[in-house]
Amino acid sequence: MPELPEVETIRQDLRRRILSKKIVQVDVLRKKVVQIGRAENLIGDNFKEIERRGKLIILVLRSGRYMLVHLKMTGQLIYQDESCLVAGGHSMRVDGNSEKEFVKLPNKYTAVIFSFADKSRLFFNDMRQFGYIKIVSKEEKKKIESKYGIEPLDTKFTQKYFYELLKKSGGNIKTFLLKQEKIAGIGNIYADEVCFQACVRPDRKVGDLKRQEIVKIYQSIKSILKLAVKHRGTTFSDYLDSDGKKGNFVKYLKVYGREGEKCYRCGGVMRKIRVAGRGTVFCLWCQK
DNA sequence: CTTCTTGTTACTGA
DNA sequence: ATCAGTAACAAGAA
Predict the structure, then answer these.
(1) Which residue, among A213, A178, A188, A209, has the nearest Cα to A198 in the 3D structure?
(2) pLDDT band per the 50, 70, 90 thresholds, residue A100
(3) How far is CA A258 from CA A186, A191, A249, A253, A263, in A?
(4) Distance, Å, A237 CA → C14 C1'
(5) Is the pTM of this model over 0.90?
(6) What are phi and psi of A122, to 5 degrees?
(7) A278 strand B contact, CB < 7 Å
């Protein structure tokens, strides 16, 4: 499930690979994923910058248009250069002494293929076809962007800002953390991890939180997201970065997917409940 | 076979 | 009008 750290990893990697490369061919294999605009119209254009807003990837086109990509749950943006095009369709290549495995693309989930002048390609894959591509004008891009809340890793996201935002809200803390229009980029995995690190139950009413707990939640949002970006995100099932490789943050997960197992902090058994319609894991003993 | 998985939106009922 | 809860979307795992 790509959340902020996974999308940011893809953004950073793609920036180094596809910027300014001329788009020479676009193949749309699954029409429904391109929701606004025609991807084929990008031929001759190139991406001059890649931005991110929450979980949305924004590719800025030289022509002044914008290509928005949302990966939803199972979307992937995978880049392969010419060396991955092996006659006969082998999926392995030898890099010095180490053998690396490559996703053989396109596969049955490939929705769109962008081909660049240097024969490298960018594949948009999505098993469940919930993800989308929109090619929009500057005005439409601004309108879509404006619906997102603050970027949690931005310096403007201060303790005071978080406190004021929380004060205005009701409901429970996990539901709040998942609201993209308040804070952009947190999904089910990181919401649970933040609550665990802050020692707060995900179903705690926002209004009942003590000052010190709010401070801990704020600090946990910053530290967990930063650490997850550093480790290139979390691969639990389908997520792959733009090299087709898994994220390394799984080994740092302390709650997600650990129901029935022992809490790393107190040894208590992790309990699973439903909050905000999502599977939610927490420690009954040390999350208050 | 059923149930569960998740990001987002649309819908429903309060 | 606002908010919370839920279905829908798709495809696969258990």
Answers:
(1) A213
(2) very low
(3) 19, 14, 15, 9, 8
(4) 14
(5) yes
(6) -120, 125
(7) yes
